Amino acid sequence: MNKRVVTTQTETYQAVADRLTTAWPAGTPEAKKGARIARRILWVCRQANWVPETTVASHQAVTKFFDTHTPATFGVTPGTYAVYRSEVLSVLKPQPVRKGRYILQMTGVYREVHDRTVDSGMPEAFRWRCSPLLWYLHDHGIAPPDISVDTLMEYYQFSLDVEQLAEERARRRAQDAAKYISLMASDPDFGEFGFCPVEITFPNRSIKYNVPRDIADALLKEYDNRVVLWARGEVSNKGETWAEYIARLDAAETPASTSDKKRAWKARQAYQDTMAKGEQVSRAPAKGFMPESRRWKPATVRSRRDHCATCAKVMYEAGQFHIETVEELTDPEIVEAIAKRLDARKPKDNPQSSYTSGILSFISTLAKDFVQRPPDDLEKIGKVKTKYGKKHEGIAFKNKEILRKFTDARIQALIDMPDRITAHLNREVVRRREAYRQEHGVLPPPVAVFDQSLIKQVMLALAAHIMLTRAPRRSNLAGLRLEWLRWRDGCATLEVPAPFVKSRKVQDPPLIIPLDVKVSKLLDQYLKSLRPKMLHPDDAQNPFLFPSPPHAGKQRFGGFYVGLPDRLVDQVHERVGVRIHPHLWRHLLGWIWLKEDPDKLPAVQKLLGHKSIETTIKYYADIDESVVLKKWLEYLDGKKT
């Protein structure tokens, strides 16, 4: 069956499905199987949001679809998912380009090249891999001296579009072809053919900009040496200490009468008090020193350093303008050019991305507070920010689309996830204990069979319980400390001090994360019996609830489990079927509660620790119109006769 139904380069999914339902006489086993696979092809189209009537069938696209989802995404078993994948891909294999042709049937120069390859001392791998390349060159009439980088890039594209190979395999094939040709160019046995060395390099997919690697070094050096110290409140925007800054202000003042001196002293004293308490109310310029309430945290320093590098790369790529100073970075014309370029590079799958807006806000802060540009320049930068900045408030459009995937069944699966992790863990412990008894004749205590992989599972279960209880930010979750634990009546409570919580000041209350009796019991068992087994002997005083586990044979002493939030969302993807990022947990809790009752905004404010209801409203008031529409449909159903 699979050999009789193959796709062409232009055939749509609907056309493939139609042929599958008509290729065999009705009622035959082949016809039934064809109809079943046709239904599954259309099912894939619905799940992937492809229009079957207009979307060209692609083996590569369907493979990627199945690779990026899990059985939990569609609520099916792993076996069913594997069957769907196998049957759909079986009929989407393209017609082999060289079906029925063998290299020994070839004539001409490339048959001679092949025979010479077999007879030479060239590595055997090239004998196996050269056939597709030689057929391609033969079919396209390309002579050996004419083979160039463009030829191999066209060969790479041919492998993708016509043969529908996976992207990684097509890359390797093109790179192997370049090595093969270069070897022949340097081998005297192939001298008569006229091959020339060819070097093909694919851009590193982790590098977004085609610019020299050191293009941002000058700007980053000034950022590290000047901007960071100012942003931390250590020096003024001119590099002065607080004493030097005050001395300069005093020197600039004209001699005044006693009453004027007293008034100036009081004003200066009030300003110092404001700086000490971090009580700057408005977003006015920092006037030299950064107030405490606006000083950058380490994560902010790192992210804005990346922003600087991005701006330098974007400007060089756009017109080879090399930004070397913060003054150049905040020039209004440069700011507009950066904004235009970033706007043009917005991802197609996330047109409402706020990345450009974040960079423009950062540049605006530098222009106003650090460089202290004149009002005209600030007005121009403000207009650029308005034109290219964020056009929406609250949760980003892409994140809303992810939240909409959490149906009632998936919400239940998420709520049950910590208990399911624990249940799976308990079954594995029972299995290991029984295996030990069969081998040694004695049943060991449960704790004896725990290794570091099982302890990590306990960590995941505890982290999932904590996230469902309060959804702290990822740094708060991974960095929980033992000293923040409080025990009352057998129940544990985590109290994260205010300085460790975003937007909270020293005088604010801590973030409270209460745990119920069952979770507290699991936590107690983990602390007494399992956590010590995770620690290195030289790291007995590690202060973190989730200490850093060994990685690649190494262990970071005194550190915490940085990758825990990422492993947790991997579990969500595997067990619930939706790929989220750690911070989306917070939005998810608000979504779950508001989906149940849209009037729960004040309760969601308290749950997520927002200081004001305005923040909660900004993020969740328009969380999803489908909630309202669903209630409207329920109302209509109730009114129908």
TrEMBL record:
Pfam families: Phage_integrase
The organism's place on the tree of life at top rank: Bacteria
Keyword DNA-binding: yes
Alphabetical UniProt keywords: DNA integration, DNA recombination, DNA-binding
CDD domains: DNA_BRE_C
Keyword Hydrolase found: no
Domain Tyr recombinase: 442-633
Family indicated by similarity: Belongs to the 'phage' integrase family.
PANTHER family per record: INTEGRASE_RECOMBINASE PROTEIN MJ0367-RELATED, PHAGE INTEGRASE-RELATED
The name this protein goes by in its record: Site-specific integrase
Organism name: Roseinatronobacter domitianus
